[in-house]
Amino acid sequence: MTDAVLGAVTLYVTLHSVRGFLFRCAAALFSVAAMLGVLRFSGLYADENPHMIVSMIAGVAAFPALAVSVMVPDSPIARKWRVSSVFLLLLATVGLSIVIYSGSRLYLNACALLAMAGIAYVSLRARRWVDVVSAVTMLVGLLCFAVKLSPITPLQPADVLHLALAVGWLGLDRSRSAAL
């Protein structure tokens, strides 16, 4: 169920955001991963590999892309579709190679955590409070998932992550929309 919430939110952000191309591409990656999760966990699609691989790509490419698009929103890498596409493809290729060949999720976790910490830091310095709260919300969700902790009893750590990411995506998207 929480996969569907994250998928719907990130699909909305992908289609309606006023932020740059890189931001919308990162949202699209999250949306695809979440929708594959919906198919997987609803029993409509039995193979777990597509959800796992796209989620891994979102971790190593979409989180850093999100960070770049929020931290330097007016840069060519965040706004121009060709540069954004090459950057995202490079992040995905390098990141996926490191995770697969190392056999460790350390790089994946570091990408996600450092991206959210970077957004929180830059937003705090710029006094963009909605972005700070959004990034910290996503960071808390990532940490709960990493340590397998659920502060809300009926939810699994993955559910906490999905909801925190959905809230964070909405906040990051809306804060930019309100500023324009």
Rg of Cα set: 15 Å
The N- to C-terminal Cα distance equals: 33 Å
Mean pLDDT: 94
User: Helix/strand-derived class?
Assistant: mainly alpha
Number of domains: 1
User: What's the order of the H and E elements?
Assistant: HHHHHHHH
The count of helical stretches stands at 8
Oligomer, anyone?
single chain
Q: Using DSSP, what is the number of strands?
A: 0
Report the helical percentage.
over 70%
In terms of DSSP E residues, the strand content is under 5%
Give the biggest beta sheet.
none
Shape: globular
User: Low-confidence segments, ≥5 residues, pLDDT <50?
Assistant: none
Structural description of this entry:
The chain has 180 residues and is mainly α. It has one domain (2-179). 82% of the residues lie in helices and 0% in strands. The protein is built from 8 helices and no strands. The protein has helices at residues 2-16, 21-42, 49-71, 76-79, 81-102, 106-126, 129-146, 157-179. α2 runs antiparallel to α3, α6 packs antiparallel against α7 and α7 (129-146) runs antiparallel to α8. The mean pLDDT is 94.
